[in-house]
Amino acid sequence: MTAATEPEVTDSLLMNVERTRTILAAEQLDGVIASSLENYFYFSGIWNFGFEMFPHNAEAYVVARSDEPTRGTIVSSVGEADLTLDSYRSISGVRTFGSFFRAAPSGAQLDAREARIQAITHNSVASSSLDALVAAINDQGLTRSAVGVDERSGNKTLLAQLRERLPDAKITPAADILRRIRMVKTPLEQARLIRTLRITEAAMEATIAAAHPGITERELKQVFETAIVAAGARPAFSFIRFGRAMAIGQTPPADTPLAARDYIWFDVGCTYDGYRSDIGRVVAIGEPSPKLRKLYAASKSGQERALELMRPGTPAQDVFDAAVERVREAGIPDYERHHVGHGIGIEFYDAPVLAPGVETPLEEGMVLEVETPYYELGFGGTFIEDTVVIRGGGAEILTRIERELRVVDG
Predict the structure, then answer these.
(1) The CATH number of the domain where 272 resides is what?
(2) Residues of the chain with confidence (pLDDT) below 50
(3) Among 232, 238, 311, 340, which residue carries the largest CB count within 10 Å?
């Protein structure tokens, strides 16, 4: 394990271009259609809020050729056309559908961005999303080609509709292929993940500083989320519970007061610039019980064993097996888990998952969460979760917050 470094990035392109070309070529795909929030963002640079506001039926697409994946055509509703102003500069065009009204009185002096939105809003607007998508496929020269489609679209009949409209094209599902592309993070993605991680760590430190006997779970959650928002990020999950409540900790926080010699469980994360964070710890208030020290030491030992094995070429399942075995050897003989970590990026659970049966080999540039939590009803448990990036020489820990069992005055 090596010390974390902060990458310096000047480019704005998130995509791992060569990996995208290589994998799409290996899958014998001439082009791809991104249709979910994560893949639309990856292929366009646009965080489309419509996917979050209307998760069951939102539609927006990027159609791209496999040999030029950064030069896709965006398909957007007219109402979301303003978002295209901040797409990758390499994007080749925009196709719109639907209706939305932005007035432009005769003689109005429009700046460059206003003029572009005016043109997008009023020029060649298709009556349906499917019509706009087919036009974009034609723009990319893919109407008689093998096209992989992200089947997680809000339009659940999309593949069937495309096969009907484009009988000379070969339309195949591609969501898993796109997730595989995104497994390895570019320097810019790593920089964004680190920034998101630092925001989360700072919010955790503010929360720990505010902890004292008598404060409630609900109050500490508010401290944490206030710090996240103040840093320009968005809270995602803020599981902050005391002692034995950890074992049922995904329920809402209570007005339970913190007691001396109790402990605080953190499993927290946020979203910043399209990227996610996920950190886990327990923090003792005053001298921890011998049992908590024992459990934490065993959990941390298992996590460290996982980190030792995390180098390019190691199958994910081997990391899982070794981590679980070490936790058992180190003091929790009946320890069981369904996974000991997962990729993180635009999704909280990027591929791969460090779990039984997952044969995916780790690759340089993957960013993963590594965790060995233990939940015990009637006591609570223990938790440690850190973010790492796979380098040529092994796992580099990106997390800076203290990894030993934290003890604060109680």
Answers:
(1) 3.90.230.10
(2) 1-11
(3) 340
